[in-house]
Write a structure and sequence with these properties.
Number of helices: 16
Distance between the termini: 140 Å
Radius of gyration: 43 Å
Shape: elongated
Strand content: 25-35%
Bound molecules: iron/sulfur cluster
Number of strands: 32
Amino acid sequence: MEIRTAKSAGFCFGVSRAVKMTRDLAEQGRRVATLGPLIHNPQCVAELERMGVVTADTIDDIPEGYEVVIRSHGVPAAVTEELAARGYTVHDATCPFVAKIHRIAQSAGEEGQLLLVAGDASHPEVQGIVGHTTGKVQVFADAEELSTILIEQNAQKNPIIVAQTTFQVTKWSESALFAKKVCTNPKIFDTICSATWTRQEETEKLAKECDLMVVIGGHQSSNTQKLCRVAAKHTRTVTVETADELLPEWFNGVRIAGVTAGASTPASIIEEVCKKMSEIREEEMSFEELFEQYSAPVFRNKVVRGVVTGITPSEITVDIGAKATGFVHISEMSDDPNAKMEDLVKVGDELELIVIKTNDQEGTVQLSKKRLEARAGQEEVSKACEEGSALEVTITGVNKGGLEAKYKGVNIFIPASQATARRGDDLSVLVKTKQNVKITECSGRRVIGSIRAILNEKSAAAREQFWAEAEVGKTYTGAVKSLTNYGAFVDIGGIDGLVHISELSWNRIKHPSEVVSVGDEIEVYIRNLDAENGKVSLGFKKVEDNPWEKLKNEYPIGSVFTAPVVSLTKFGAFVRILPGVDGLVHISEISTDRVEKVQDVLNVGDEVTVKLLDVDWDKKRVSLSMKALLVEASEEAAE
Ligand code: SF4
C-alpha cells in the first residue's frame, strides 16, 4: 500500500501561533488558563495541561490569579469586555484572519446593515463573529438556507456576507453566486482562510488519486469534518484522532491511501498515523469478498451496519464498508432536542442505520438511526393495534384536539375524548409523563391511541373483583367523587357507592357538604348490595357515635342536668341533651304555676336544669321536666 500525505496537512498559522503563545507563557512559569480547549485536538490540549495550563469552559471557571488566553477562534466582544471588567490579564490569540471578520461584523452593526454569516451556528468561531455586531445577524449553512433567509427577512438589498474561515469552499461559491443573483448590492467578503482553502483543494486532488483517505483531526474539529466531506466526494474516507483509532480492515485491498489533517493536528500525530498505516497488513479477506462488500449497492431504505469514525456536535461520520462515506446528522440520532452528540455515541461504536439519501456525485450517504428505530417502533405499533395490546408511550405535547405522544420515534395522537377517564380534565398535566395506551387505529403514519380504553379495562377488572369479594359490613377507604342533594358518591376501587345523606351523620343535615367534601378520603362500609343493578349503598356514620346509644348509657331515667333551650312551640320547649337528641319540656312541666304561653317563661338559648322523666326509644321521644325539680325542692324545704 502506498501512502501519500497532503503537503498542507497539520497546524495552520493561527493554531500554531496560539499554541506557541500558550506554551511560551507556561514555560515562563505564568499561571495560564485558556477559555475553552485551545485547539480541537485532545492530545495537544492534554500536553498543555501537563504543563499546568488550565482549560476553563466559562469565565467563572477561570481560577483566581490566572492569566487568560483567548484561542484562535476568537470570542464575542462581550466576553472580552467581561474579562477586562473582572481584571484578568488577557493574551489574545485570536487568529488575525478571524479578527478581520470581527472588524467587518462590527462595521455592519455600526452601519445598521444585516450581517449574514456562512457557517455552523454552533461553532465558537461563528458565535464570536455574531457577537461582534450590534445589528441584525443570521447564520446560514448553504445557499438554500441563505435563500430562505433573504426571502423571510426581505433582505435582498445590501446585506454584508462573510464566511466562517473553515467554511466549505464549494458551498461558499454557490452561496456567493446566489447572493449576487438575488441581492441588489450585496457586500461579499470571502473570508475563508487560505489555509482552509489550500487544504480542501489539496485534499480533493489527493482523494481523486486514492482508494482510501484518512483524515486526521479532532473529532470535534469543524475543519477536519469539512476535509472529510471534501474527500468523501471522491473516495472512501475515514477520520481518526490518533493512530490507535486506525482499524486494519479499512485497508483491505487499498492500493493507495491518502493522508490529510485538520488545521489543529500536530505534526507528531500525523507521523504516528502514517507509521501505523505502513505497519498495517492487508487482512486475509479475498479480493472477491472485498470487492463484493465494496461494490454492494447502497440505496434508500437499505439497513446497513457502520463504525463511527468521527464526531462533531452536529454529525458523525460512519464507515459503512462501501465506496461511499456515511453521515448521520444529530437530528437523525435522537428525538431529544437537547441531546449532545458526544453523549449519544463514541468513535468505534458500531451502529445499525438506515439509508435516507445517497449522493453518488459527492460519494456520500445520509443515514438515520432514529428512522430505523421508528421503523421497528412502527412494526410494534402495528402489532399492538392488531392484537389490542397496550404500549407505554411518552406524552410529548398537547394541542387543541388532544395529546401528542411518541413510541420509539412513532408519533401517536390521542384525541381529547380518549385521553382521560372523564371529559374536561386538564390534559397538560400529562405532558412528559409515560402512559399506557391502546392503539385503536394504525394506517400508515396515522396512529391513534386511547388512554381511556386502558382505564376502562382497568376499572372493568376492578369492578369484577369488587363484586367477587364484596359483602355487607365490609369496610373500605374511598375517595368522595361527587355530592348530590341526597348523598355522596364514594369511589371504593372501581365502583362508586352511595352514602345516603341520612347515613352521613347522626344529626339532621341539609346537604352532604356539611360533613364531607369532594376528594376527601373516608372510611365507609357496605350497607347493602344490589348486584343485579350494580348498586352499592354505603354507611359512613359509626354506631359508637349514635347519640341515642350515648343517651342510653350516660343519661339514666331520673338524671338531672343543665342544657340549652333550642326551640319553643305552643306545647313546650325543646332542650338539646346531646347533638342529635332533643328532649321536650311540656308546657305543663315547666313550672308549678300555670303557664299560659311558653314564651312568657322561656327563651331560646336559656340554660335550664331539667329532670329526665321518660324515653320512648321507638319513637325517639324524650320527656323532660323542670316542674319535677321545683316540686322536689319545695318538698325538701317543707321537711
Ligand atoms: S484556519 Fe486560518 S483562520 Fe483558522 S486559525 Fe488557522 S490560519 Fe487562522
